[in-house]
Amino acid sequence: MRAPNSSGLFVACAQVNTRFGNEVFPGARDAAACNARGGARKSHLSMLKHGALAIIAGALVMGCGTHRENVATAPVAPSDAGGDSVASVSELGATSETSEATTTTLGGPIAGLDAAELARFAAGRDDFMEVETVDDGIGPVFNEASCATCHDAPVGGTTGRTETRFGRMVGGQFDPLAERGGSLMQDHAIGAVPAGAGTFTFVPEVVPAQATVHAQRVTTPLFGLGLVDAVPDATFLILARLEGLYSPSTRGTPSLVTELRTGATRVGRFGWKAQVPTLHQFSGDAYINEMGVTNPEFPNENCPQGDCAPLAFNPDPGMNNDGSDVDRFADFMTLLGPPKRGNRAFQSEAGEQVFRRIGCANCHTPALVTGFSPVRALSHRVFEPYSDFLLHDMGELGDGIVQNLADGREMRTAPLWGLSARSVYLHDGRAKSVHDAILGHSGQGTAARDRFVGLNPRMQAALLAFLQSL
Ligand code: HEC
Ligand code: HEC
């Protein structure tokens, strides 16, 4: 597979294991990026804005002398996560000119759009909410008739709707059972259609008897994903490198996938397995796989339960959409603002420090930086997704499905922004509380989970208060 990076500078301060060999990263200053990590490792922006609060909260965490024995009952982070081992926004490309992306209401557009961009947002949102019919091309098998059926509350969010994937293991290899309609199941169908003198009835897919792997995946919210789309591939490669240096035991792996529009190898960042590289591609992918609407990048209908013969009765063969809807969905998601953080209070500031100290932030990277975007509000912005968007080996928490480079145990670090607006957690929604979601971590997440379990109740409460402020 071709390495996506081709020019720029090499981050040279240590040899770490890598799937890319000695990659050359555009944008990385030089080895000084590694050596110049003195004390100031917190995001300089949040340092400026919240400095005083952070210092006081820090004193709380450290126990401020006499109360110290009440505070930290957990072992501190292991040597590989010693101190603050999280990549800072400066290392990821922020300069003193970089400003923070903001938004006003959940479900609204990102702040700072011009009139033409706001019009694109509105038109995209209308299309995203539209309930489509057989005449529009949905089916023959599909999951729902509108993006907003799953991505709602508010529009662009998540209703918690899950969908099913299946496959089987054969001789240690994953078989997505494509000839049986896998790995993604379509649980709706358009029903009876005219066929010659009679009718033919399309029925929903089911998990076939051959499947030994079943996974449920919850609908993810889409707030702020235009910012994630605007992060250069090189940033994720640098981030993986920095994780290898600062916290090797929790180091993530970039998900390398093909961008269909260009044929280029890109860093996937969308979906539970980081299986898709761009919002535009996800739009076309979701249009065919969730709604059964063919479009230029995805011209082939799904064969119901893997059997292509019934497509002879497809009432709407041929290209269902010329790509204009795909563009509009992508517009809406690109311009959809990030979740707004709640007010910072002492307890949540203390909780953020615990979050960093016990190693949560090693994967849930607090802040990232976008590159150039033609949309000014998205260009060179710092934002706070609390994810590195890289794949991690989560052990038994993994969903067993293999997609691209992601094996059955690997999952993308779930972004934690907007967590307070959610009610089910983890990829299959098994956790009904944030506390249970933390306890569900396994594999590379085990050590941080155990350190959480070892915290005294006051520090656990501070950490949970912090997560609720996101
Ligand atoms: C049946 C419910 C359903 C419908 C309808 C649906 N989605 Fe989704 N969406 C999901 C689920 C489930 C996921 C997580 C999928 C995965 O990773 O396997 C998802 C993930 C996404 C993501 C990735 C978000 C992230 O966190 O990286 C995007 C983008 C997206 N959907 C866009 C769309 C668009 C655009 C439409 C309409 C064309 C649509 N979806 C229709 C359920 C749905
Ligand atoms: C090794 C990387 C890693 C570490 C360390 C880690 N997480 Fe996670 N976290 C993940 C991944 C990957 C997921 C998604 C897993 C899944 O659902 O399959 C996740 C999911 C979550 C979720 C659920 C989010 C959602 O959208 O459902 C929460 C909450 C969370 N982590 C909090 C924490 C906290 C708090 C800590 C520290 C105690 C922590 N994580 C440590 C990688 C990590």
Describe this protein's structure.
The protein is α+β, with helices and mostly antiparallel strands. Helices cover 27% and strands 12% of the residues. The protein contains 13 helices and 15 strands. Strands 3, 4, 5 and 9 form a four-stranded antiparallel β-sheet that branches. It has a three-stranded mixed β-sheet with strand order 1-13-12, with no helix packed on it. Strand 3 (162-170) and strand 4 (173-175) form a beta hairpin. The longest helix is centred in the N-terminal third of the chain and has 19 residues, at 44-62. The protein starts with 31 loop residues before the first helix and ends with a helix. Mean pLDDT is 86; it is low at 1-83. It binds heme C (2 copies).
How far apart are the first and last residues' alpha carbons, in Å? Answer: 37 Å
* Major sheet: 4 strands, antiparallel
Structural class: alpha+beta
Total of helices:
13
Task: Say how many strands there are.
Answer: 15
Give the total of domains.
Answer: 2
Shape label? globular
Query: Could you spell the SSE succession in H and E letters?
Result: HHHEHEHEEEEEEEHHEEHHHEEEEHHH
Bound molecule types: heme C
Structural topology:
Blueprint: H1 32-35, H2 44-62, H3 68-71, E1 99-100, H4 115-129, E2 141-142, H5 147-150, E3 162-170, E4 173-175, E5 183-184, E6 188-189, E7 191-195, E8 198-202, E9 213-218, H6 225-229, H7 233-246, E10 255-258, E11 265-268, H8 279-289, H9 324-335, H10 346-357, E12 368-369, E13 381-383, E14 391-393, E15 410-412, H11 434-439, H12 446-454, H13 457-468
Parallel strand pairs: 1-13
Antiparallel strand pairs: 2-6, 3-4, 3-5, 3-9, 7-8, 10-11, 12-13, 14-15
The protein binds heme C (HEC) (2 copies).
